[in-house]
Write a structure and sequence with these properties.
The complex is a heterodimer of chains A (about 120) and B (about 110). Chain A has about 120 residues and is mainly β. Chain A has strands at about 1-5, 10-15, 20, 25, 30-40, 45-50, 55-60, 65-70, 75-80, 85-95, 105, 110-115. Chain A is built from no helices and twelve strands. In chain A, strands 2, 5, 6, 10, 11 and 12 form a six-stranded mixed sheet that branches. Chain A has a four-stranded antiparallel sheet with strand order 3-9-8-7, with no helix packed on it. In chain A, strand 7 (about 55-60) and strand 8 (about 65-70) form a beta hairpin. Chain B is mainly beta and about 110 residues long. In chain B, about 0% of the residues lie in helices and about 55% in strands. Chain B is built from no helices and eleven strands. Chain B has strands spanning about 5, 10-15, 20-25, 30-40, 40-50, 55, 65-70, 75-80, 85-95, 100-105, 105-110. In chain B, the strands form two sheets. In chain B, strands 2, 4, 5, 6, 9, 10 and 11 form a seven-stranded mixed sheet that branches. Chain B has a four-stranded antiparallel sheet with strand order 1-3-8-7, with no helix packed on it. Chain B is globular, with a radius of gyration of 13 Å. Chain B starts with a strand and ends with a strand. Classes of the chains: A mainly beta (about 120), B mainly beta (about 110). At the A-B interface, strand 5, strand 6 and strand 11 of A face strand 4, strand 5, strand 9 and strand 10 of B.
């Protein structure tokens, strides 16, 4: 079984400040990890992914995340946020082939960027 | 390259009715997954299809069903609708189900 815990349900931050959204996961097998962003009344947009290789992955819109296997974490960071980054962010894990196509999502973190 | 297309975007149905939602995956993607998103339960996996076969199923009652066609397009059906079925239904496609998934805009279903 696999699970995802997003440690903060809401993160308020001022424009141009750095931000970190925290994600821990649990799985008995090797996993792939993802961050998605969702704007109101929209689907999920893939921000970045970790499949293998370098533990620091870069995504769209200036976001990056670091995979830490020993701490089972995959925190999302951005050095300077914009008003337009206000949205809900989801961390997701995809396990082995027995769970193909079945991503497990965290409960989401609402990022609010204030001017 | 066209993204994942879900139709319709919005639906209003009455309790007891049935509904069919459609999803057209990205060209070349053979895996289609369905999720239900509600404020209380978050994103919950419904089922996944690959090459017209259901490979995985979430913990939903039998009123929720789906299928996939030979062109990888997928439909999900909900029979005997209940108020609690009101949700955003999201479809996601991926090449094999073992890589990143791309989501459609969703279908907002309201049951009254």
């Amino acid at each position: 079984a696999q699970s995802v815990t997003q440690l903060d349900s809401q993160v308020p931050v001022f424009e141009e400040a750095p931000v970190e959204l925290r994600c821990n996961y649990s799985s008995s097998v090797s996993v792939y990890l993802f961050w998605y962003v969702q704007y109101p009344n929209q689907g999920l947009q893939l921000l970045l992914k970790y499949l293998s290789g370098s533990t620091l992955v870069k995504g769209i819109n200036g976001f990056e995340a670091e995979f830490n296997k020993s701490q089972t974490s995959f925190h999302l960071r951005k050095p300077s946020v914009h008003i337009s980054d206000t949205a809900e962010y989801f961390c997701a894990v995809l396990g082995d082939n027995t769970n193909a196509g079945k991503s497990t999502f965290g409960d989401g973190t609402t990022l609010t960027v204030k001017p | 390259k066209a993204g994942v297309t879900q139709t319709p975007r919005y639906l209003i149905k009455t309790r007891g009715q049935q509904v069919t939602l459609s999803c057209s995956p990205i060209s070349g993607h053979r895996s289609v997954s369905w999720y239900q998103q509600t404020p209380g339960q978050g994103l919950q996996f419904l089922f996944e299809y690959f090459s017209e076969t259901q490979r995985n199923k979430g913990n939903f009652p039998g009123r929720f069903s789906g299928r996939q066609f030979s062109n990888s397009r997928s439909e999900m059906n909900v029979s005997t609708l209940e108020l609690g079925d009101s949700a955003l239904y999201l479809c996601a496609s991926s090449k094999t189900g073992a890589t990143e998934a791309f989501f459609g805009q969703g279908t907002r279903l309201t049951v009254v």
